[in-house]
Amino acid sequence: MSDDLHEWLSFDDPDEARTWVFDLTFLASRWTCIFGQGCQGVLTEAAPELNHGCCSYGAHFVDEADKARIEAFAEQLTADQWQLRSPGRRKGIAVRERSGTWRTRVHDGACVLLNRPGFAGGEGCALHHAALQAGERSMDRKPEVCWQLPLRRVDSTDELGHVTSTVREWKRRDWGDGGQEFHWWCTEAPEAFSGQNTVLVTMAAELTEMVGAGIYQRLLAAVAERLSRTEPLPHPTVRASVAVSISAR
Description:
two-stranded antiparallel ribbon, alpha+beta, 9 helices, 31% helix
């Protein structure tokens, strides 16, 4: 069996010229974010003590609207919520790259919106904490790429105008050339596949936002029908972990 074999599930959109393709192997896995609970970060060496998670390089905004939305939310953050509020407000939270794209500013080795270990307001994304304090979903106040991770939607259009939308796990390659230099990446780490529920359940809100409520419900039905026949293919990381465990006996 291929080391990176995934099972896919697809169906046509009933309302438009689009085919949806879903990474069933990842969606049926028990991956969970382990930020602050064993996450080694995405630097070239393991650095769990920094508690950067995947925030070391800043977050790229998908468009001007995404940037403006996050800048507005950052303006609302208090000093008790945002550790780096002073430099963030003085310099701005966004920086333009040579390519013309925008990302959040990096300050002292990580995103300026990231609260560092020991901050009384809570470690991790200041926007995330502020959203929860306001009784809102954290995804509604974070950059689009941040709330989607480690899911990724890729749209492609053929010569006839038909769109294929693929929803899959985020790979190292999606970070660009630098992704291959990461010492660690969570979808390759067995310890991250320890959730109580599947990604299909734990990231229901994110999936619904990415594909729409109607398509998400169709996805649930299609997955249920598929899983009624046989067990899903285990994620490659889980398969590899089991193989290592067996060989060590």
